[in-house]
Amino acid sequence: MIRNQWYAVLDSKEVPKKGIVSFMRLGEKLAFWRDKDNKIACIFDKCCHRGASISAGKIINGHPQCPFHGFEYDKTGKVVVIPANGKNTTVPPRYKVNSYIAKEKYGLIWIFWGEKKENLPPIPFFEDLKSNFYYSQIKDHWPMHYTRCIENQMDVVHVPFVHHNTIGKGGKTLVYGPKVKWDNNKLTWYVKNLVDDGKTKAKSAKEMEDEKDLFSLEIIMPNIWHNIIADKVRVFAAFAPIDDENTMIYLRFYQSFMPIWGIRQIIGFFGKLYSKIILNQDKRVVVTQLPKYTTMKMDEKLIAGDRPIAEFRKKNEQLINENNT
Ligand code: FES
Ligand SMILES: [Fe+2]
Q1: Which atom belonging to ligand 1 lies closest to the Cα atom of 69?
Q2: Would the N or C end of the chain have less CB density within 10 A of its end CB?
């Protein structure tokens, strides 16, 4: 996993208005709650006293209280009260747990997984989806590293095989390009697949038509993906790393053509149902891939059509080298 990045880790609704909840994310057991201004806080969910789960306790005056001996924490992870020592006794600074800067945006909870810096980069999101869209969502646990999950959604070669009776109907096995374009940490790739008549040769990215005439998809590093199905229909996914061998996928069906309450819920229901069918087709195959993660140098023989995946691996490695020192 790349340090010093904003990771989408939860859906907003998973952190209730009151109380404290625990989730395994980025290989760590984390506790989340909302302060009195509804702002999200995130600290390690293991009491520094004797290891109990802080989230098994309750919130007292805006502070989580460990259920075992009552230590109270603030949102930076510092212990502010040790009841056995008395409320009037100052707590030495060594009584603390780690914490992350956490924010809520676009209906998701994000943590900045890295050093707490003054000037953090903005939370990454797809410009188009910031307004006018309605979405419905499913979440699904996949037993592999998030790199495998995100690469599956970047794979333009698998569609006529894995999805032969759904989005890949028609047997368009021949892959042009794909064209790829980086804009900082956002990668867009442009796709054209067609039926192989045995005479047509696959075109290289340079020979392909203008980008505006092609179907496109995007990712923003490290963990969000966007499928531009049509101007007003999109699919989005956040791949929240649980640990090195598990990922929680938040998959959203977005549409902006139907604003009427009631009808848009029905569209959302069928949109997410269809997305779930597609996702399950992917999952059946991806669970069989070994190893459960990907790296820049590994024993896989990529082909021209895998260009987006190769680009992702290269960028991932570059960001790890820059940030994981
Ligand atoms: S284990 Fe948490 S207060 Fe003792
Ligand atoms: Fe797929």
Answers
A1: 3
A2: C
